[in-house]
Write a structure and sequence with these properties.
mainly alpha, two-stranded antiparallel sheet, 4 helices, about 50% helix
Length: about 150
């Protein structure tokens, strides 16, 4: 009986390695993963599952499939990649520096000039010069991200 290579171990580990690179390149364009990066964890789970399948196959049928040692090592490295990515995503990416110079609620905003959705220049002073009796304030909404 000839021994066969256990390609599912290596394919699963490659999926785990590709998942962090798929996050900033492919998944952000397809799915709104800024709020919940669940799609990356689906890829991680798929990769770890395929690696675990290959490792179980190598342990159950050692005369047919290779990869008991390599499968154990790659499964451990894959789990470490998931832990490292999760740590970076949920801890370090959330450490936003404080905005000490930003205006507070109720405080007057500094004078500005920004284009609106049609490309016309809007200033803070032009928001108060509407011709109405008395304008008490303005609500400014800033959309983050890209369209």
């Amino acid at each position: 009986m000839t021994r066969r290579w256990n390609l599912s171990i290596w394919a699963g580990f490659l999926i785990v390695l590709a998942a962090p690179f798929a996050y900033p390149t492919l998944l952000i364009r397809l799915i709104d993963t800024h709020a919940a990066p669940w799609a990356v964890f689906v890829l991680f789970g798929l990769g770890l599952g395929v690696t675990l399948f290959g490792l179980r196959r190598a342990i159950k049928e050692p005369l047919v499939y290779r990869g008991r040692i390599a499968g154990s090592i790659l499964l451990t490295l894959g789990a470490a990649c998931v832990a490292l990515f999760s740590t970076g995503l949920f801890y370090f990416a959330r450490q936003v520096p404080p905005s000490n110079g930003a205006p507070r609620v109720g405080q007057k905003a500094p004078e500005f000039a920004l284009p609106d959705k049609d490309g016309h220049l809007v200033t803070l002073a032009s928001l108060f010069d509407t011709g109405a009796d008395k304008v008490n304030g303005a609500v400014l909404i800033f959309y983050r991200g890209y369209w």
